[in-house]
Structures are given as C-alpha cells and as structure tokens.
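Methods — Computational structure assignment.
A single polypeptide chain was analysed. Its primary sequence is given first, followed by the predicted tertiary structure written as structure tokens.
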Amino acid sequence: RTWLAASGYAVVAGGLPFISDERHRLIASAYGGVGARLDRFSAFRLGGGPGGGEWEALSRPLAPGAAFEELFPSDYLVLNLEYRYELLFFIYLHLRGTLAWVDLLRFQGNGLAERTDDLRAVTAAVTSGFPWASQIELAYTRNFGLFHIDDGRPRRGRDAVLLLWAREF
C-alpha cells in the first residue's frame, strides 16, 4: 500500500520587545505534518521528552506530558511560545505554552474513529550547568488534552515531571 507524508518545522529566537537585556529570550516554534493513507508503521511519532534545549532535538515535535512516541497522528500542528530567563550565567528558567492539534484514533461506540484533538500544555523548567561538562533540567508540565485513568475512567489532563541529565561524549 502506498502512503504519502510531509513534515516541517521552524524555530525563531530573539529578545523581548522593549527590553534590551540579553538575559530575556523569547523562542517561538512551529511543527507540522500531513499524511495520507498512513498506518501504525508510517504515521508520525509524537511524544513527550526533553524540550528543545539540546541542539539536535530542535527538529523533534513534542507533546508535553505524553510518553515517548505515545501518539501516532496522520496530521498534526504544534505551536510553542517559550520565555527563557538567565537567572545566573549557568541557570535558566523556562516558561512554555504549547498549542497542538493532532489527528488521533479514539474509541467511539463500538470502534475506533480518527478525530482532531487539541492538546494545550504549560511547562515550567529550570536548566543548569552540571559537573563533568553536562547539563541538568527539571521540568513540570500540565497537558490539558491528554487522558489519564482516574478511578477506572479516562479523564482529560495529565501531569508530568521530567528530570534530564545530558552530557556530550
């Protein structure tokens, strides 16, 4: 069976308007993908994980609060707006808002149906330099669109805490 998929992303970073201090940064990013006749092997992979702090991770779209590669959409659009503040020369505070529209399979009636869900999330994180030329990040995310199980029933809203230690070898 033939399938078709295309994806892209853009990231823009700069200072805050009307503030000349370089310790304040605003980062905007957009990720999108469209596909036709995708199955579970050819669908896009969208999930949680560390933010775009690592240069090689900038191209990976994230759904904050999701497990790694939890979602397999055929179409998606993810928009992020992040404020980053340099507390000290080695400690950064991140505040990020995410809006995402993702085509997902959902249980409806007696079967599965594809529908577009909105996944809104807020994230607060602290990143710091760490011994051995490494970095450590502690982040908290609240995703208002993902489901979690509470008392045996699915409910919207999921929290996640991420502790990441990264070192370049």
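Note: The chain has a mean pLDDT of 88.
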